[in-house]
Amino acid sequence: MYSKWAIIADDFTGAGDSAVHFVSQGDPVLLLVNKNAFKEIGDKPETIVLNTDTRFLDRDIAYRKVFEATCNLYSWGYRNIFKKIDSTLRGNPADEIAAVMDAGGFKFVIVAPSAPKNRRTVVDGICMINGVPLHKTTIANDPFTPITSDKISDIFQIRFSQSIKELPLSCIRSKKGNLFEIVKNEVSRGTRVFISDAESIEDLKKLSSLSSLEGILFAGSSGLAEALAGSVNHFSSMHTPVIPLNQILFTIGSLSEQSQIQCKNLLDNEEINEIIVEASNIVIDPQKERDRILRKLDYLRQKCPILLRTDAIINKTDSGSIDKNIGAIVSQFLGDLSREIIQRCNIKLLFASGGDTASQIIKYLDTDVIRFVSEIVPGIPFGYFNSPAVGRRIYFISKSGGFGEEDAMLQCLRLVSSGTVNEWQGEQ
Known about the structure:
This protein has helices at 12-19, 59-75, 93-104, 152-160, 169-172, 178-188, 201-208, 222-229, 257-269, 279-284, 286-296, 324-344, 355-364, 408-418, 421-426; strands at residues 5-9, 29-32, 47-51, 80-84, 108-112, 120-123, 126-129, 132-133, 164-167, 193-196, 216-220, 248-252, 273-277, 306-310, 349-353, 369-377, 380-387, 392-399. It is of the alpha/beta class. It has 2 domains: 5-229, Putative sugar-binding, N-terminal domain (Rossmann fold, 3-Layer(aba) Sandwich); 245-426, 3-Layer(aba) Sandwich (Molybdenum Cofactor Biosythetic Enzyme, Chain A). Strands 9-10-5-11-4-1-3-2-16-17-18-15-12-14-13 form a 15-stranded mixed beta sheet, with helices on both faces. Strands 6-7-8 form a 3-stranded antiparallel beta sheet, with no helix packed on it. Strand 17 (380-387) and strand 18 form a beta hairpin. It is globular and about 70 Å long.
C-alpha cells in the first residue's frame, strides 16, 4: 500500500507488535533502539520503528521527545508516519499525537486503539477488553499508569479541546464513500481529532481507506498497523535453528494479570527452571540479591528453559499507585541480570515481557537494532539481533504485558524448541 513507513512508539514491546505487520518477504522491519542507530544501518529500509520510551514520562517531556523524533524521521526522508499508542490508553497518547502533528504538519488524526486479535475494541468511544469497559478491568489499575477514563475523548480534551469528533460503528460501516465525505467535511470545519469505534480488522481497514486525504495522521495500536500495512502472511522466509530448551530464557517484568496466567500455564505444562527475584531485596541490597540468584544457576535442572520473574513491586505512593522510580530500579535489575544469565547459560533465544524490562535488557546487551521478521503467534513478534555484549546473535520474542492467549508463552516455547516456527506461520 505504501513505502517508507516510520512508526513512533512510546514503549518497546508496543513498537514490536505494530512493526511486525509491515514485514515483507525477505525484508525485516528494523526497530531502532536509539536515534544514532540509523547511521549504522546503511540503506534506508522500507519501514523503521523508533521507540521514544516515553510512556512513564511527564507529559511535557514526552511531547518534546516525540517532537524531536518526528523531526529526525522527516530529515531521514520518512513521510508516512504511524503513531503507535497503547490499546488501553496508558501513557501520554494525546500529548504524543500532538507532538507528531505539530512537528510533521498534519492537519488531523484518526485515533483507533482497537486491537481485535487481542480482544481490544472501541464501542461508543469507550475502550473495551473482552467486551468489558476498560474501567471495570484490572488493567484500569495498572501499577505504573492507572487509567483515569475509558472514554477516549476525555483523554484528548486537554490537548485538543473542542476539535474532537467521534466516529461510531454506524459511520464506519456505512456505504462506500460516506466515511470519506464525513471526515473530509469535518476537517473543513476545523475538526482535528477523530475518535473511531472498531470491533474488527474490517472496521480498521475502512479507516485505512482514508489514507488519500491530505494531511492525515493515523494513530492506534497493532490492529490499525495491520490494517494500514495490508499484511496477510507477508512474512520473511528466514529459517531458524531448533533452539535447545536449556538455551531459552523468559524474562517477565510485566505484573499484568494476563502475564501471571501465562507464566502459570507455562509452569503447569513444562519443566521450567523458575527463578523469582524478590523486589524488596532489590531495594534493600541489590548486589546481595543478584549474588543469591546467580548462585542458583549452578543448580539448574538440565534441558530446561529458565523463567526469570519478579514476585511483586513495592513502595506505593500516598495515592495508592506504585512509585515509578522503584519500577525503573526493578527493570534495570532484570535487564542486567538477564544479560548475565544469557552469557553464563549460552542463551540463544530471549522472550521478554513488559516494555520497560525488554528495553533494559536490550540496553544491557549493547544492541542498537532489532530485526523483526514475523508474528510467532498472534500479537507477539519474533525477530533477532546481534549483541556485542555477548558476541553473537540472539533470537528474540517480545510481548506486551496484557497481550496474548493464556498459553501464549507455552506456544512460543514449543514452536521454537521444535523448529516449527515457519511451518506454523504457513498454516495461518
